[in-house]
Amino acid sequence: MGESHPIGTKTILIVDDEALLRFDLVDFFEAAGWRVFDAEDADQAIIILEERKEIRVVLTDVQMPGSLDGLKLAHYIRDRFPPTILYIASGHVPLREDELPAHATFLPKPFDPNRLLCQLEMVIE
User: Domains in the chain, please, with CATH?
Assistant: First the structure.
């Protein structure tokens, strides 16, 4: 019959200006069977989100160049695309719970992508 999960369930957007880190994460999630989109800044991420409505998860770095940093991007996503699962990562800026958008998770860098994958797979299953 049909799929047991909604279309786009295992679809992630990775937003990070550090190209090597971003490409490593893209490769990691693709190898795990995810459909992956990537952006080097918030402006690109917003364009992708507007065009690709199936994106279910966004993983963004905090410190990035452009009109919005990752935290502002996460708040924008929560307002504009409320069901999106949000992970906000930083190795330089520790964030308090009250700074995060509702239902977002902070990941201090470096983080274990295997652990993140396990968390995501439990949430979306």
Answer: 11-124 (3.40.50.2300)
DSSP-derived secondary structure letter, 123: H
Beta strands in 17-121 (DSSP E): 35-39, 57-61, 85-90, 104-108
Contact 121, 103 (CB under 8 A): no
Distances (CA, A) of 121 to 39, 51, 111, 114, 125: 22, 24, 16, 11, 6
pLDDT in tens, 44-86: 999 999 999 999 999 999 999 888 999 999 999 999 999 999 9
Residue 84 · residue 55 · CB < 8 Å: yes
